[in-house]
TrEMBL record:
Organism, scientific name: Streptomyces pratensis (strain ATCC 33331 / IAF-45CD)
Region named Disordered: 1-21
Residue ranges crossing the lipid bilayer per the database entry: 62-82, 89-106, 118-147, 168-188, 194-217
Key words, A-Z: Membrane, Transmembrane, Transmembrane helix
Compositionally biased region (Basic and acidic residues): 7-21
Protein name according to UniProt: DUF3159 domain-containing protein
Length: 253
């Protein structure tokens, strides 16, 4: 068993000082900001849907509303490309809007613009819950590479795995609660009512889930930097090989 495989327990973790707790909270906050896009990512998530429902509320024109939403989502991607920023959040917005436009144009029902996003939200909620029950919480799979710990938390850091499980349950239940509001409205409400409720529910549930994730992870043991460990082991192997080579050369004399 190598150091990369050696498990640890909660009791193996040293008691952290107040400064270490503050550092852990700052690192966790930075990682969550990177993973979920921060304020800009939230704006890119909300703006296309907000523009769609605003235009449709004014003129009830499905085509104009759809074109405007798709255009602004594409514009957000172009802006990120020009600034050489990561485009994953903007691109996900483009795909979401494109599917919404496709559904709405195919059915002729403006409400169907929101249906792909609602189905995605439901699927994501189930994914959070099912993966956690299976012992591989989805939030850990998402954040593991961001913290440079990959999957080390599964076998080597039980306290961190527990935090990821709590966070994944929180995400799953919050998204399920959101779906419990939206799907009845899809059947009972008109397009503008559904649209405004959906826009209103974009940010608050997301912020609650991110906040709970931050709380759980900030109190968890620190991540194990597997990249640093692998680099250290590679250096150790290289140093041992160099030492053997020197010893071999010396033995020739």
């Amino acid at each position: 068993m190598t150091s990369l495989d050696k498990p640890t327990s909660d009791t193996d973790q040293p008691h952290r000082t107040d400064q270490q707790d503050a550092d852990a909270k700052a690192v966790t906050e930075a990682a969550l900001f990177e993973a979920f896009g921060g304020v800009r990512g939230m704006v890119e998530t909300v703006l296309p849907g907000l523009l769609f429902v605003t235009i449709f509320t004014i003129n009830k024109d499905l085509t104009a509303s759809a074109v405007a939403a798709l255009a602004v989502s594409l514009l957000l991607v172009v802006v990120r490309l020009l600034r050489k920023d990561t485009v994953k959040h903007a691109f996900s917005g483009v795909f979401g809007v494109a599917f919404g436009v496709l559904f709405a144009k195919m059915t002729g029902n403006a409400k169907d613009f929101y249906l792909p996003g609602m189905i995605y939200t439901l699927g994501l909620a189930l994914a959070y819950l099912v993966t956690t029950l299976a012992g591989v919480p989805l939030i850990g799979l998402i954040l593991g590479p961001v913290f440079k710990e990959n999957l080390s938390w599964r076998t080597r850091n039980p306290g961190r795995k527990k935090a990821y499980a709590k966070a994944s349950y929180a995400w799953g239940l919050i998204l399920l609660a959101k779906c419990a509001i939206l799907f009845p409205l899809y059947w009972w409400a008109d397009t503008t009512q559904l649209g405004w409720v959906l826009v209103a529910l974009k940010i608050p549930p997301f912020l609650l889930a991110v906040y709970l994730t931050w709380v759980f992870l900030a109190k968890a043991p620190p991540p194990i930097d597997v990249f640093a460990e692998m680099e250290a082991e590679e250096k150790a192997r290289k140093a041992a090989a160099d030492a053997r080579a020197v010893e071999a050369r010396n033995s020739e004399f």
